[in-house]
């Protein structure tokens, strides 16, 4: 049993700065009972903050009400703010306790509840486990889930928040390019024929072979990567093969505008997945006439193409529909 307990819980000294903060807040309370409550709450928050930081999660004590003397005085609160995730309640319990007290004022607006056992010396603590929700003031300790479940839950929540943020960004973007419609000769504003943007002299033999007999569909868009200078303009080209019901091969290229011989150096071309993570990248050197990336997408899949040059960044969002 001892091996299982060691895996399911976490014991360590309470950080010194956390003990100092707890003592500081305790001295500012009017009654003995309130002083003890604030002291234990602050120790608990400090200990959970230490643990989660060690596990790689970003926290913000200054955004936690428990770190505010006024909020601590007004409520029985032990919240810890996790960046982009929400508030995690860190409830203290003493040794040999059978229940975790969760006051009514913190039974909502929380992503979870962690039980923190404070030692009699107030210098060490143990994380006993967690639950996602509570429906009672007294939570039995034997109903807590183990700590590894807490870490898995927070990681899943982090990935969900990233996906939601990316999807919201794409949904709000009115220029989402629907590539399947290109196969029906329906093009969004700004996407022009290659000859129009580059001139017939710049359209190379490879393009001519691609577009012969309508085998491939290519469209380009003028991208301004400079605030003033015209030589920071480039042409983003997207090429599609004949229609495929399951998967579409895509070629993304960047070319200098008509009249320019080379692309700017240190220009980055990236393909991002639906979460905004770069999955492939190309970069220009001192004398690149073009750069290119090739990949495949399934029907319904979203991706983005990002161009960056110095402090300028432009992103175009696409969907295969």
Can you summarize this structure?
The protein has a 5-stranded mixed sheet. It is 27% helix and 31% strand.
Would you kindly provide a written description of the structure presented here, covering whatever features stand out?
There is one protein chain. The protein folds into two domains: 2-169, no CATH class; 173-319, no CATH class. The protein is elongated and about 85 Å long. The protein is 27% helix and 31% strand. It contains seven helices and 16 strands. The chain has helices at 2-8, 16-27, 32-54, 69-74, 147-172, 194-198, 205-211, and strands at residues 10-13, 79-82, 86-94, 99-101, 112-118, 124-131, 138-140, 177-178, 217-224, 233-240, 247-256, 268-272, 278-283, 291-298, 302-309, 312-319.
**On the 0-100 scale, what is the average pLDDT?**
86
Low-confidence stretches: 1-7, 170-174
Q: How many distinct domains? A: 2
Strand order of the largest sheet: 1-6-5-3-2
Helix content: 25-40%
Largest sheet: 5 strands, mixed
Using only C-alpha atoms, the radius of gyration works out to 29 Å
Order of helices and strands: HEHHHEEEEEEHEHHEEEEEEEE
